[in-house]
Design goal:
Length: about 220
Amino acid sequence: MRDDGPVSPISVLIADDSALFREELRMALARETAIVVVGAVDGHQAAGVTEALRPDILLLAVSRLGQAALDTLPVIRKQSPNTHVLILSEESDDEFIGNALQLGAKGCVSKTVDYKDLVKALWTIYAGEMWAGRKLLAGILESLRQKTQEINQPFSETQSTLTIREQEIVRWVIRGMTNKQIAAQLEISDKTVKAHLSNIFSKLKINRRLQLALYRIVELTD
């Protein structure tokens, strides 16, 4: 067990429609002495088994479950409020994952994630923090941008417009640049970039929980 880990192992429940993937993931995590897989079920059983076992973490695959996975999240939060949900997704699920974070997921990783990063993600959300990648931030902003006719036009009479500088920052974020790189490109400070991102999140009407997740991505990747 890690010196900085908890006294008790982390209990993990795996939920994925692929029996083969569930077994591969279970066997991989079995190598960790500080992680105990308490079950491996298909997605439709996730809520019921989570309520019964109350694991520390639910690894919930979303690539094949679609809307059913989103519908499960509020149920899981109500039935087992101390269970943290880590989403397993495909690379193309940016908009879906954004919705999942708003509904209570603590983070997300790709199904192709390196094993070490998966373990790190488990420990991170077990500690009560968010876990996601910079690419997710770019994907969420791109998805939101595509939903609007023009990013520099108001979404409604009550919604604000993005300034020219904010539009520039969105474009650089979508290209995968960090805050430091954006600051250098625009010849402004890191602090100013973060302030612009805060305004962008608010103007795009991203709810408070997702804002916190996105802020966490910004902090982790600079």
